[in-house]
Amino acid sequence: MTGTWHLIRLILRRDRVLLPLWVIILCALPASYAASYAELFPNDAAREQYALTTAATPSFESLLGPLFGNSVGALTAQRVGTVYAILALISLLTVIRHTRTEEDAGRRELIAATVIGRHAALSAALIVTAAANLLLALLIAVTLISSGLEAGGSLLLGLSMAVVGIVFAGVGALTAQLTENAGPARGLAIIVLGVAFLIRAAGDPADSWVSWLSPLAWGQQSEPFAADKWWVLLLPLALFVVLAGAAYRISVGRDVGAGVLPARLGPATSTTLASPFALAWRLQRGLLIGWSVGMGVAGLALGGTASAVMDAFADNPDMADIMTRLGGTASLADAFVSGLLGILAIAVSAYGIQAALRMRAEETALRAEPVLATSTGRVPWALSHVVFAVLGPAVALLALGVTLGISYGASMNDVGGQLPRVIGAALVQLPAVAVLTGLTVALFGLLPRLSALAWGALGAFLLLGQIGAVLQLDQIVLDVSPFTHTPHLPGGTLSATPVLTLSALALLLILAGLYGFRRRDVG
Amino acid sequence: MVSGLHKSFGRTHALNGLDLTVGTGEVHGFLGPNGSGKSTTIRVLLGLLKADAGSARLLGGDPWNDATTLHRRLAYVPGDVTLWPNLSGGEVIDLLGRLRGGLNKTRRAELLERFDLDPRKKGRAYSKGNRQKVGLVAALASDVELLILDEPTSGLDPLMEEVFRECIQEEKRRGRTVLLSSHILAEVELLCDRVSIIRSGQTVETGTLAELRHLSRTSITAELATPITDLPDVHDLHVDGTRVRFQVDADHLDAVLKHLSHAGVRGLVSQPPTLEELFKRHYEVAARS
């Protein structure tokens, strides 16, 4: 263990921004949920009504987890269900980042040659991650207590999140020992997390014992603000001891840089990689598949909740008013779907930006240079990525429209009628999404160093769309965002002018970007 | 090939009127200290950077405007080959070869064998030296007229450097033109017909190795009959009684020897000029300035 303290300080120095950032963001979430529930459902009757609706909506429990009781605290404990998964993801990534990634990059060798014990690297990564989780637990307890919730439940909720984070830190520690490179270690750990999430999502709506098979479920199964079963927290701690123990055993028995699972070999030759487009497909297909599947699943889960949420909000005029303003149509159910599509369109824009920024990443990693030193022209090279940045979001939106249409239609007993409406409503978001892609391409071509500003623009549009409508900001300010101009479908009227204007703007931005890229220095 | 090239990045002047001519069929050594503008010149030649002033011609075309057609006729290996983490080495070789317009399959297999490279490994799993080999195999297996190599042997072990030298000599026999940027003098001495030395974005020497040797200094140690205090036109003069030690440029050798024989020469040791000294001299000036 010699040198662990030095490595802890190294990790804290390297993560001095990242670590506080996620702790602060995650600790703010439970208290903000509690505040909004206290406001939305001010009395027992309203909360009981909400609890009944939730129990009748399987997809809601699948997404968030089980609801025990009907106090504000209990509702909050259910609502943070997704936060457990986020925390688990962050924890496993943090551990891998400071173990296998370091080894992969060869930096571990530099450290291992100094007076540092064999266990030090793994210990330091686990200690920092566990400490951050416990700090988060404490902060969550403090913020919940100060917002008026019961102290015991607040502390239990905080700790239940920390122990889930710590279990997945253990998962990360183990997979980091198994594979030779950081990428597969991350992939393996995320698969474990995904399986845990699916098991919980399958078990929770049925109140089945199956949920107990998932470490992700153990946090909520401690029933904070209801039965307060503290002993449940021993389960994740025990599993963590097993996982970390296995990781230490492997770590001691292996060489620095080696793994237990052999590195997967690729093909020795390639017959398909023959054009810049084929290369772009290889580089972009992961994003495309991930986003399309993600949007498809989101559509399926959210469509089912639409009619149930509508029932819950029907008695709440304030909420209904906000939803109608967000969606801009009178029919509440249509407004909900339209508002949902508006939010998800912003998420899909993130994909468009991500796909377009691949070009910049290829350039700065010096991988564009050897390709451009072949007879591949700059415009074909850039276009091969732009195609994915424009059509990729279209595919993701289509997947969203299909699944949302089916599940929404099913909940209204009208799949045939709703499916084409919802698909159309999803695809009408594309021009606004393409404007963001176009903006990214334009920045890449004309001001490459500022390419990441596209994220800033997306953040600003997100704020305008979400807060602007609620605050009733001036229309001129709202008009800056392309999403303001997207027709509110289903339910609203489809006018051609905004759709065509946005499409033309997107095309213009892309052409400007290509023009700039043709004329500028590469590298 | 290049004359009076200028290129600035913000306030840094990377190239300051650089001249470089590479004849068809020759292996041309391109030398200079770190940061002297070698890679920038190569990037201008590849049409990746646009020169601010001056002219550049490559294989009879304009490197900026005719980039894609010219690139069919050349292959490039950067000093630090970066690979796509999820593509295998073999896939990268085939990709770059095809994008260039074709790859010689037998030669590809032969080169993989000689460089002892496993093409099935993923990009993320290769060491620095093996990534370099991927770039070299992809370039050498292409049927092109011109090879542009930017410190291509960085990270290779001595055995592989030897393989690389053999390969370049074969390319030379095939009549290909090679522009080789390198720091390894043994490599340059063995392979290059002509060399250009650049410093701070300017060409300071260019010529055949014999011409450059002529430019460099001979070291002389002499035992004299009578002590002398001064010798004209010599460098680093050390006088120790009747012993003198100094360096002299080839042009002044004759005059200096006459001067010495006046004092009566009892013993004389002369060391021939080495390229290394010539390079060091240029590099040191660069380091000082």
TrEMBL record, chain A:
Transmembrane segments: 81-99, 120-145, 151-175, 187-203, 230-248, 287-310, 330-353, 386-410, 422-446, 453-473, 493-517
Protein keywords: Membrane, Transmembrane, Transmembrane helix
UniProt name for this protein: Exporter of polyketide antibiotics
UniProtKB/TrEMBL annotation, chain B:
GO MF annotation list: ATP binding; ATP hydrolysis activity
GO CC terms: plasma membrane
Localization in the cell: Cell membrane
Bilayer topology: Peripheral membrane protein
GO biological process: response to antibiotic
Chief subcellular location: membrane
SMART domains tied to this protein: AAA
Every ABC transporter domain range: 1-225
InterPro entries named among the record's database cross-references: AAA+_ATPase, ABC_transporter-like_ATP-bd, ABC_transporter-like_CS, ABC_transporter_ATP-binding, P-loop_NTPase
Entries under Pfam families matching the protein: ABC_tran (PF00005)
Keywords linked to the UniProt accession: Antibiotic resistance, ATP-binding, Nucleotide-binding, Transport
PROSITE patterns per record: ABC_TRANSPORTER_1, ABC_TRANSPORTER_2
Record-linked CDD domains: ABC_DR_subfamily_A
Family: Belongs to the ABC transporter superfamily.
Name the UniProt record assigns to this protein: ABC transporter ATP-binding protein
Organism: Acrocarpospora macrocephala
